[in-house]
């Protein structure tokens, strides 16, 4: 049986502030890993080539950080959160260093995958640390603050990436992680105390391998389908069959594992199931927008990498503002259900408006559209973690947090992959014979487009802008489904104390354990 987790003792205020600062730095580090690349992608493709594999620079990080998220929760229980966080940062920095050394797109993609192996741990373990020291009611405000940190990263990341690409070189978008990583290591060394007792757990290696393999096969299929291979080719269909088989085997293994990577009984918890589904769909929209908007601004509107990042500012203002406001609302009222309902409705509107963009769309209109998208994303991120941690038993808070993060990251990975396939196939169909012989799209960059004759350049840019419309329409469809799911979310009053258990269902094993020791289930926990 797993370790009975005792309620955390609330430390003094300076200690809490230092720990929250450590968590904020680690989240900033992981978030920058996701966002700093976006404005540099056209420059990277221009130097290394491989437009067909452009989205894999993003997907490699998202996919690897996604599949390792559940195992980090188990490693934290086994070895303590401090050492696991420190190891994750070191892996993250190693991947960043290798990314800066890349001489080909394949090398860069592999290095980004290594970087993601560390980034996945930063997200999950940091969020679990907060659940140990902050009561759910106050956690809403803290999660809103962390949502703002993520929003800052989405502003600073593309802006910093664009500035570095323009004035130094794209390699420095990865090297810039090194001093921040060292700072995070230093703060964690001071703020977090190592756990004195190690508890032997049974790690579900089979489940981890099957989940990783299934997700990898599925994302490969969606990325290669309609691009490198035909959708109904042997290669793509083989990947889809492999994905279904491995994910099916994963479910079978999880139902029998002593300590599963992702306990299936979590899906009987309404809050976990609904927020995970909404997070999956909103993750698709979020990473799709962040990936393709800078390309539109740089190529279709002709702005510099730095300016394209600056023009993302309205989206990030919306994300930061609504994330913090929703956190304060949760802390003040203890309620949260209405927040994802309003947010996803706004997100649908913003994405539909983005799907109408043309070459001559005024910049102020694009700014409004992006603000709405950001405003629709912000509350979902802060509500999901707070509501989930409040709705599950204390001993599975870490696993539930990892699961919630897992689905949001899966949504991002699959979303970028699917949107990349939609964009690439749409662009190829629209370009037709427009590009000069041998031009192709493998090195499609702002410089290549600028060198084209005026009539050809106009047609190419129109084709590029039109190819983005299906991307945003698809993202809007995902947001519509998320809006519908938000009405299924049950609302449980946020607990005001670390010792108070939430209004959550007690599974059969916990009830039996409580009965055996003659104590209430809440005490057995």
From TrEMBL:
Cellular component, GO annotation: plasma membrane
Major facilitator superfamily (MFS) profile domain mapped to chain residues: 19-494
Membrane association type: Multi-pass membrane protein
Pfam family, one: MFS_1
Keywords on record: Cell membrane, Membrane, Transmembrane, Transmembrane helix, Transport
Membrane-spanning parts: 16-41, 53-72, 84-107, 113-133, 145-164, 170-192, 204-225, 231-253, 274-297, 309-330, 342-360, 366-385, 406-429, 471-489
GO molecular function: transmembrane transporter activity
InterPro entries: EmrB-like, MFS, MFS_dom, MFS_trans_sf
Listed name of the protein: MFS transporter
Keyword Transmembrane helix: yes
Localisation per UniProt entry: Cell membrane
NCBIfam families the record matches: efflux_EmrB
């Amino acid at each position: 049986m797993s370790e009975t987790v005792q309620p955390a003792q609330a430390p003094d205020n300076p200690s809490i502030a230092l720990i929250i600062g450590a968590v904020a730095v680690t989240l900033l580090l992981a978030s920058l890993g996701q966002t700093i690349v976006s404005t540099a992608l056209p420059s990277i493709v221009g130097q290394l080539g491989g437009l067909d594999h452009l989205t894999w620079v993003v997907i490699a990080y998202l996919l690897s950080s996604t599949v390792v998220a559940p195992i980090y929760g188990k490693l934290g229980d086994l070895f303590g959160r401090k050492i696991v966080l420190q190891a994750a940062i070191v892996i993250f920095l190693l991947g960043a260093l290798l990314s800066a050394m890349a001489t080909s797109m394949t090398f860069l993609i592999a290095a980004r995958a290594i970087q993601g192996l560390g980034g996945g741990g930063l997200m999950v373990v940091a969020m679990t640390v907060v659940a140990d020291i902050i009561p759910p009611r106050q956690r809403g405000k803290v999660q809103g603050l962390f949502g703002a940190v993520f929003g800052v990263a989405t502003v600073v990341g593309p802006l910093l990436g664009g500035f570095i690409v323009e004035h130094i070189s794209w390699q420095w978008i990865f090297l810039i992680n090194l001093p921040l990583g060292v700072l995070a290591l230093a703060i964690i060394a001071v703020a977090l105390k190592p756990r004195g007792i190690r508890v032997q757990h049974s790690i579900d290696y089979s489940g981890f391998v099957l989940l990783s393999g299934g997700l990898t096969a599925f994302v490969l299929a969606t990325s290669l389908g309609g691009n490198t291979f035909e959708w109904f080719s042997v290669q793509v269909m083989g990947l889809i069959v492999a994905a279904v088989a491995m994910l099916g085997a994963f479910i079978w293994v999880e139902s029998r594992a002593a300590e599963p990577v992702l306990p299936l009984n979590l899906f009987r918890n309404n809050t976990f199931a609904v927020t995970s589904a909404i997070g999956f769909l909103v993750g698709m929209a979020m990473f799709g927008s962040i990936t393709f908007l800078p390309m539109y601004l740089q190529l279709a509107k002709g702005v510099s990498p730095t300016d394209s990042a600056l023009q993302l500012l309205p989206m990030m203002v919306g994300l930061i503002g609504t994330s913090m406001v929703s956190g304060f609302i949760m802390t003040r009222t203890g309620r949260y259900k209405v927040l994802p309902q309003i947010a996803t409705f706004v997100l649908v509107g913003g994405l539909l408006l983005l799907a109408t963009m043309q070459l001559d769309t005024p910049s102020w209109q694009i700014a409004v559209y992006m603000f709405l998208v950001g405003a629709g994303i912000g509350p979902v991120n802060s509500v999901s973690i707070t509501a989930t941690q409040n709705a599950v038993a204390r001993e599975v808070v870490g696993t539930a947090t990892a699961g919630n993060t897992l689905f949001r990251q899966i949504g991002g990975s699959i979303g970028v992959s699917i949107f990349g396939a939609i964009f690439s196939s749409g662009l190829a169909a629209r370009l037709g014979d427009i590009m000069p012989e041998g031009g192709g799209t493998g090195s499609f960059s702002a410089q290549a487009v600028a060198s084209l004759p005026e009539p050809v350049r106009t047609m190419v840019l129109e084709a590029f802008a039109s190819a983005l419309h299906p991307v945003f329409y698809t993202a809007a469809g995902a947001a519509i489904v998320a809006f519908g799911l938000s009405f299924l979310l049950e609302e449980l009053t946020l607990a005001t104390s670390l010792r108070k258990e939430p209004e959550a269902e007690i599974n059969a094993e916990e009830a039996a354990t409580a009965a055996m020791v003659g104590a209430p289930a809440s005490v057995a926990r």
